Amino acid sequence: MTTVLCPGSFDPITVGHIDIITRARDLFGNVLVGVGRNNQKSYLFGDQRIALVREALEGMEGVEVSSIEGLLVNFCREQGITAVIKGLRFGADFDFELQMAHMNRGLTGLETVLLPAAAEHVTLSSTILREVMKLGGDVSRYVPSCVAREINVRRSQPSF
Ligand code: PNS
User: Fold this and answer.
1) Cβ 72 under 6 angstroms from ligand 1
2) 89 an active-site residue?
3) What is the mean pLDDT of each run of 10 residues along the chain (160 residues)?
4) Which of 30, 45, 69, 81 is the most exposed place for a label (fewest CB within 10 A)?
């Protein structure tokens, strides 16, 4: 059985991410979900992202969760992982993923597998969910229950 890394920002984790992780596990046997940092982004859920990913995936056979500090390729080398898997929704995803895939392959030979998002999730985006959530919209059908719970907690705080 192979272990692939499924890396992402997960700000927050959505049902689309969970679908990709589940299908990656079914294809490869084991998935390590890596909660990483894109330095171009500032994260609404910050360090809580990893706790929410862990809770959302708790009990899923063949799935583990880790944070990624520093370069993805170094993390993979340390873990003995030779391939990452990413969900692909539309052209803009492809353009960015292709750049990262070539950089990672150039750095250490790390391979990237791109898995098309399920039809029902192709337009789902954490960025849009954050926007709707901040403006009071109900996003609960797009996120696992732990994220919906956290959104309600935040809404009840005066600083929200
Ligand atoms: O969900 P995202 O925002 O597309 O995830 C991007 C992420 C976190 C996987 C990417 O930024 C990443 O790999 N970060 C770790 C640091 C790194 O290696 N950056 C160079 C990537 S070529």
Assistant:
1) yes
2) yes
3) 94 98 97 94 94 98 97 97 97 96 98 98 96 95 98 85
4) 69
